[in-house]
Design brief:
With 179 residues, the protein is mainly α. Helix content is 79%, strand content 6%. The protein has a two-stranded parallel sheet.
Length: 179
């Protein structure tokens, strides 16, 4: 009977060691991952919020200047309408030419506004993206994550709110670091 218990104990020991080895192998080969919702991240990170505030101020300046130009064009067109029907052919040509020039100028200004804001956003966001990437590398190491995916506009089909969604934790980490 003692021999029987010895065999059972040996089998139990071998199975236990095998189980531990199996668990270690599985754990070492498991990839830990998470994802961040980039839209939520960029609206929640104080650094990105500051940039958005600066961009809004700049856009307000551009919009004010564009409204002034549009009002000037509208006033010109109102004055033109009053005299156009009774004007000479030469005056009509001059008025139309001036109207076209003002419309083109407003179009160029609007395009310059768009391009200027795009360029400004790119320049202001570059250091923000560097901060985010640097902090995400540190955050991932601290959490033992092997891979972090970014999602925007629903490119992660499932996962929001799951254990893999690290957005809220990362935003807190990021804001503490750069606040």
């Amino acid at each position: 009977m003692t021999r029987f218990y010895g065999i059972i104990a040996m089998i139990a020991l071998v199975l236990s060691v095998g189980g531990v080895v199996f668990c270690l192998v599985v754990k070492s080969s498991t990839v830990r991952y998470g994802f961040v919702n980039t839209e939520k991240l960029l609206t929640s990170f104080v650094g990105a919020q500051r940039v958005e505030g600066e961009l809004r101020k700049e856009q307000d300046k551009w919009d004010s200047a564009r409204r002034t130009m549009a009002d000037s064009l509208a006033a010109f067109e109102s004055r033109m309408e009053l005299v156009y029907d009774s004007a000479s052919l030469e005056t009509k040509k001059r008025l139309k030419s001036e109207q076209v020039r003002r419309i083109e100028e407003l179009g160029r200004f609007t395009k310059a506004e768009e391009n200027g804001l795009i360029k400004m956003r790119s320049e202001l966001m570059e250091p923000v993206y560097k901060q985010i990437n640097s902090a995400l590398a540190d955050f991932s190491r601290e959490r033992g994550l092997d891979v972090v995916f970014a999602s925007s506009n629903g490119s992660i089909v499932y996962g929001e709110g799951s254990r893999a969604d690290i957005t809220d934790d990362f935003v807190s980490f990021l804001n503490k670091r750069f606040h």
